[in-house]
Amino acid sequence: MKQNNGAPALPHCSGCGIQLQTVDTGKPGYVPEKALEREPIICQRCFRIKNYNESSSVTPDQDEFLRLLSEIGTKNALIIHIVDIFDFQGSVIGGLQRFVGSNPVLLAVNKTDLLPKVSNWNKIRNWVQKEAKDLGLKVADIVLCSAKQNQGFDRLLEAVDLHRGNRDVYVVGATNVGKSTLINRLIRDYSDLDQELTTSRYPGTTLDMVNIPLDDGHYIVDTPGIMYPSRYTELVGAQDLGVLMPDKPLKPTVYQLNEGQTLFFGSFGRFDFIQGKGHQSFTCFVSGRVPIHRTKLERADELFANHAGELLSPPNPENLAKLPEWTRHEFRIQKGTRSDVFVSGLGWVKINSEEGAVVALHIPKGVKTLVRTSLI
Ligand code: GDP
What we know:
The protein is an alpha+beta fold. It has helices spanning 44-50, 62-73, 88-91, 96-100, 121-134, 153-164, 179-190, 232-235, 238-244, 297-307, 317-321; strands at residues 77-84, 105-110, 141-144, 168-173, 198-201, 208-213, 219-222, 253-257, 261-265, 269-275, 280-286, 292-296, 326-333, 337-343, 347-353, 357-364, 369-373.
C-alpha cells in the first residue's frame, strides 16, 4: 500500500495505533518526515499529548463534529465543555444540549487568568450562568479555571469526581480554548500516560479520538477541537493569532468619546460612535498587542484607505489582503444599560450608556459580533 503522494505506506503509531502518514498535516495519523527517525514512531497528535504542549486536535468539519456529539449522547458520559472566557460566545458550542441527551455537562470556563486582576468572580460566574442559560445550555456545574496558571483546577477535579459516577469523561471544545492544556493537566492527575493512548474511530466518520485510560477502567476521551469560521482567530495566520490572543491579563483602556469619533484596532476592525449625547465612556478589552488609534469618524474611511497595514497595523498589508472584506454592523445601545459590543476573537468594547448610543463596527465578513450584558 502507498500513501497519497506515492511514498510507501508507513507503520502504525505506537501510541494510538493509527496508520501513520506524512502527507496531510490536518488529517489523523500525520507524522513529520523527520520524526520517522525517532523510536518509537508516534503520530504528531500523540507526540504533542505526551510532551504536554500545544494543541493536538485535528479539526473536523462541523457536520462530522455534530455527528460525533450525537454519538456521545447515546453513551453514559460526563461531558466537560470547555470554553474560552475571552471568546465566550465564539467558543461555546451552540446546540450542545440537543446532542448530549441526559448526560451531565460541566462547563469549564478557561483562561480566567486573562481577566483583569480586579474581577469579581461571583459576578463572572453569575454572568456565565445566565449566558449559558440564554443559549439553552443546561449545565450541572460551572468551573472557572485557568489551565495555564493551574487555577481552579482542584475545583474542576472535584466537580469531575462529583458528577462522573460510573461514566467516561468526554472533553469537547472549539479550537484554541485550551483543551489540550487542560487534558494534559487531567492526565497528570488521573493517569500514568506512557504508551497507553488509544484512538477510537466513530463509525462513518474520519474522526479519531484519543482515549486516556483512568485507573478505574474508564476513559477521558479527547475529542477533536471544532473550528468555527466565525471566530476571528480562525481567519488569521500564526503571526496575527499571537497578536489577537492576549497572553497577559487584559488592561482595559477607557476612551471618552463624543459622537462622530472612531477607534481603529490596528487594521483588525473599527468601532464608530455614531450618535449619542455628550461624552460617553467606552472601555476596550483587547489584547495589549492590538494598538488602538482614535480618529474622527469623517476621516476614518480615508485613513483606512491610505494607511491600512501601515499606520493602522497589524495585520501587515500581506496578511490584511488575506482577510475577508469588512462589513458594517450597526447597534443601538439602550439608555441606562451596561453592554459589551463583542467581536469573537478580538475582544469587546464596554459601553456605559446613560443616554443611549448608536455605534457601528467594521470587521471582516463572517466574524461573529453581538451585543451582550457586560461581563465586567
Ligand atoms: P486547544 O486547541 O483547545 O487544544 O488549545 P491549547 O491547549 O492548544 O491552547 C490554545 C492556546 O491557548 C495556547 O496558546 C495556550 O497557551 C493558550 N491557553 C491554554 N490555556 C490557557 C489559559 O488558561 N490561559 C491562557 N491565558 N492561555 C491559555
